[in-house]
Structure prediction request, 127 residues.
Amino acid sequence: MYPSLQATQFRVNNPSIIGKSIQEINPERVYQTNFSRIFRGNDVFVASPTFVLEKGDIVKCVGPRSEKTMMENILGEEVQEMKNDHPIQISCRSKSDGKQDNWKTTATITFFCSKWSGGYANQAKWF
Prediction:
């Protein structure tokens, strides 16, 4: 059976991981918890293996509840505030039977982008 998963955010404040990449923190993929996104100021980043963590980064993790305390010990304190990673959904719709008000969604794409100075950044972060 698969473990029950939860999404949790942690503020990086453990001096032993500051300046290290995600790959260096979990080189053998020992933990089942995945780093999903990194929030740094108003920017949102994909948590790639080569991404280097800085003090104060907020890391969104998804993993089994049983690893939550371990992640808190590795990364830093849990953050209750939910960071907004600005999801944008684009849907393609078509008329399913030719009637004016009978539309059907045929595909949906969701992507995330960073909000900055009153607008959205030009670069979307695809998931």
